[in-house]
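Re: the 132-residue chain
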Amino acid sequence: MKLDIYLNYRGNCEEAFRFYEEHLGGRITGLVRHGEQPNPQIPADWAGKVLHARIEIGGTVLMGADIPNSEPMRSAYLSLSLDSEADAERVYALLTAGGEIFMKMAQTPFANRFAMLRDRFGTSWMLLHQPG
């Protein structure tokens, strides 16, 4: 058995996955568009949107799709453990650009760096660099 993560986006799944691929060292391993399915039941302007995508980030599989009227993540977070404080600060700057900060990057009793945010694509993240 294996548990993976599946996220719904409001039409920007490919943009989000390309961003994560470029900036988080991910690797997109699959991308199928709504228009590729037989008899798509979607508006014509959604034919190029993502029906199913798969990206591997740090050994974890993240899958996603574009779903009209999907809601941003509310009480679940992708938790990203980073190798250094500098890496944590770099990723924090990337993911907060155009996003929403719930808890600013700071030292906590359990981490050298910890932050909670929602990126501009609607994905909620916890960033964590633990003491070595």
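The radius of gyration is 16 Å.
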